[in-house]
Automatic annotation (TrEMBL):
Keywords: Methyltransferase, Transferase. GO terms for molecular function: methyltransferase activity. The lineage of its organism: Bacteria, Bacillati, Actinomycetota, Actinomycetes, Streptosporangiales. Pfam families: Methyltransf_12 (PF08242). It comes from the Bacteria. InterPro entries: CFA/CMAS (IPR050723), Methyltransf_12 (IPR013217), SAM-dependent_MTases_sf (IPR029063). Gene3D superfamilies: Vaccinia Virus protein VP39. This is Methyltransferase family protein. Residues 41-134 form the Methyltransferase type domain. GO terms for biological process: methylation.
Length: 251
């Protein structure tokens, strides 16, 4: 099965697609305090949960969602119709790095999708290029080490020790890239568990009700992911979503 289809199926019961609760998501979006007729961009929008809730909270805002997943964008369009915000949402099937716009945005999101740019630093640089000068905000979700991983855990994750920093170091990396942190949400272990049990369980249930090669592949993916979570990063890898205000560029 294609990776994006596995992801789409696994997120069926948790479309936020990050270890963040619905209430945590809404607090972050509300804290942004966007101006009238705000323009919003989500780089790696997946199934559009963040965008559709933002458009519900800000009824005169418009938004663009960018992703490469056809199934994810189709789900985003359905959710936008269900919430009555489809007329204010534009969806683009293209790599995040390929998105351009003639107008800047008041809020740019990239939550759990920094891999689209090859890491946190290039993501922050790309986000800055989309922001409205002076007033634009970014909402960026990124992993961090809750505690130093063992060599065995790094091997299971396929990660390097410096791939993430600790929480303080993650904040420092964002501020070194030209942002001030103005609010944040640090995911709790309960949020992580809810997300991971949902991811692995929803995919397993689909697999067991769809016998055949696709079902076998989905079940194998669910079990491999659960192994990596329970024996690898549970309690080791954290997740923080930070609301950022750009700072003036030097000179």
């Amino acid at each position: 099965m294609e990776r994006d289809l596995i992801s789409h199926l696994a997120h069926g019961d948790h479309p936020i697609a990050a270890p963040v609760s619905g209430s945590g998501l809404e607090r972050l979006l509300t804290r942004a305090g966007l101006p009238p007729r705000a323009r919003i961009l989500d780089l790696g929008c997946g199934e559009g949960a963040w965008l559709t809730r933002a458009l519900t909270l800000y009824p005169d805002a418009t938004a663009d969602g960018v992703d490469v997943s056809e199934s994810g964008l189709a789900a985003a369009a359905e959710e936008a119709e269900r919430r009555g915000v489809a007329d204010r949402l534009r969806l683009h099937r293209t790599p995040a790095a390929g998105h351009t716009s003639a107008e800047p945005y008041d809020l740019v999101l990239c939550v759990g999708a920094t891999h689209a740019y090859g890491g946190l630093a290039p993501t922050l640089a790309a986000v800055r290029g989309h922001l409205r000068p002076s007033s634009g905000l970014a909402l960026v979700g990124e992993g961090f080490w809750e505690r130093p991983p063992t060599p065995e855990q790094l091997a299971l994750l396929g990660a390097e020790p410096d791939e993430y920093a600790d929480l303080a170091g993650t904040v420092e990396r964002m501020e070194a890239a030209g942002y001030a942190v103005i609010h944040g949400h640090t995911s709790t272990l309960a949020e992580w568990d809810e997300y991971e049990w949902s991811w692995t369980g929803t995919l397993s249930r689909w697999a067991l009700t769809h016998p055949g090669p696709d079902g076998d592949a989905a079940l194998a993916a669910a079990r491999a992911h659960r192994e990596m979570w329970l024996r690898g990063y549970r309690g080791v890898l954290g997740f923080v979503t930070l609301l950022l205000h750009q700072t003036p560029e030097p000179g």
